[in-house]
Amino acid sequence: MADSNRLVEQVQVRIDEFLSTRVPIVAAISPDLTPLVAFSRQFLSGGKRFRALFCYSGWQGAGSSAQDLSPIISAAAALEIFHAAALVHDDIIDNSDTRRGSASAHKLFEGMHGENAWAGSRSEFGRAAGILLGDLLLGWSDELLDEGLDAAPDQTAARLARAEFNRMRTEVTAGQYLDILEERAWLTQPEAELLDRALRVIVYKSAKYSVQAPLVIGAALAGASPAQLDTLRAFGLPLGIAYQLRDDLLGVFGDAAVTGKPSGDDLREGKRTVLVALARQGLSDTMRHDLDEQLGDPALDEARIAALQRVILASGAVDRVEALIEANVAEAVLALEDSPIGEDAREQLRSLVERVTRRAF
After folding, report:
1. In the 8-state DSSP scheme, what is residue 203?
2. 14, 140, 138, 136: which is closest to 72 by C-alpha?
3. One GO MF term, please (predicted)?
4. pLDDT tens digits, 259-312
5. In degrees rounded to 5, what are phi and psi of residue 219?
6. Is residue 240 within 8 Å of 210, Cβ to Cβ?
7. CATH for 155-361, among 2.60.200.20, 3.40.50.720, 1.10.600.10, 3.50.30.10?
């Protein structure tokens, strides 16, 4: 835990240093751009830093003995900036008003519009400015990654890490598209395919990007062997699936004080998750129709949310999701056994298993 805390501190320092180098560039254009930097700092402070931790664990797992940690710290920090960009865009797509218990980026821009009595629509300005902030963070993640890779002693390993980062970026964008597609096209898809389609969204929108890719990027930067990379992929994918399944439960049943999002937010957004797919399988035709009718209604109040939560619980879907989490965790842990990963790194990965899958409601 102490090592994890030190890493998180180092990543935050690197992010702050990087942002400080971008302030003069933005300030030289116009003082009107100050909010872009201020909001960037806000969204890049705090958080669980799971992607940075997995990136560093992958680097450790490959047995790196490098004394200069700047390349891996920069890569881990770049992943956190990429994650912030994804969250800004995700909140716009999902019409989410909050993030980590505070206003989401587009809502902050809406507030600016209202406070200054500017012309036009507050919401349109907020969404447009939020998209641009996400784009800016996305570009900055690339710049910071390049700074770290340029400092790596092994440029062949650096190129492999860059290739893995590029793959991750493509996959998570594809997964995000599949997610919004499922919310709108599920009614036209064969009933028997809905669960598999929801699982596909989990794999590409979250599992690879949250766990597997950071592990492999860190390991690649350390010059990992093919066997080590295969082990980390075999560990990271099921753990990433378990991580997102836990997130799906939190999205329906989570305490806002813990998640930073309103309880039942996924129900208001109409997320077609594995939890929902399994719930539909366990409901009568009438109850299934009622669930489908209410999912995605942004006006769902606490009473209707509570009623839907009871329906989902009664369907047996929560128990089935918990069983899926356990099965994927077991698969991930098994992948580490007799693997070419050092014992210290294996122990660190086992501790991360607990942290990402045992989060409370």
Report:
1. I
2. 14
3. prenyltransferase activity
4. 667 778 889 988 999 999 999 999 999 999 999 999 989 899 999 999 999 999
5. -65, -40
6. yes
7. 1.10.600.10
Determine the Cα–Cα distance for residues 179 and 182; give it in Å rounded to an integer. Answer: 5
Q: Which candidate, 144, 124, 3, places its Cα nearest to that of 84?
A: 144
Give the pLDDT mean for 127-148: 97
pLDDT of 66 higher than 80: no
Band (99; pLDDT cuts 50, 70, 90): confident
* Cα 59 from Cα 53, distance rounded (Å): 10
What Å distances lie between residue 4 and 21, 52, 267, CA to CA?
Answer: 26, 10, 34
Residue 112's pLDDT is 96
Q: What mean pLDDT comes out for the span 32-45?
A: 92
Per DSSP, what are the bridge partners of residue 318?
none
**Residue 257, C-beta contacts closer than 8 angstroms, at least 6 positions apart:** 101
Residues in the chain: 361
* Count of beta carbons in the 10 Å neighbourhood of residue 73: 21
The torsion angle over the Cα atoms of residues 144, 150, 156 and 160, rounded to 10 degrees, is 10
* Tokens representing residue 173 in the block: 């964008």
Q: Is pLDDT above 50 for 1?
A: no
Distance (Å, whole) CA 257 – CA 128: 29
Tokens of 131: 């998209």
Contact 195, 45 (CB under 8 A): no
What is the third-level CATH fold of 1-46+67-152?
Farnesyl Diphosphate Synthase (1.10.600)
Domain ranges of the chain: 1-46+67-152, 155-361
In the predicted structure, residue 2 carries a pLDDT above the cut 70: no
Mean pLDDT, the chain, integer: 93
- Please check whether residue 89 is in contact with residue 106, taking contact to mean a CB–CB distance below 8 angstroms: no
If we measure between CA atoms, which residue out of 287, 308, 269 comes closest to residue 182? 269
Do 1-46+67-152 and 155-361 agree at the fold level? yes
CB 179 within 8 A of CB 247: no
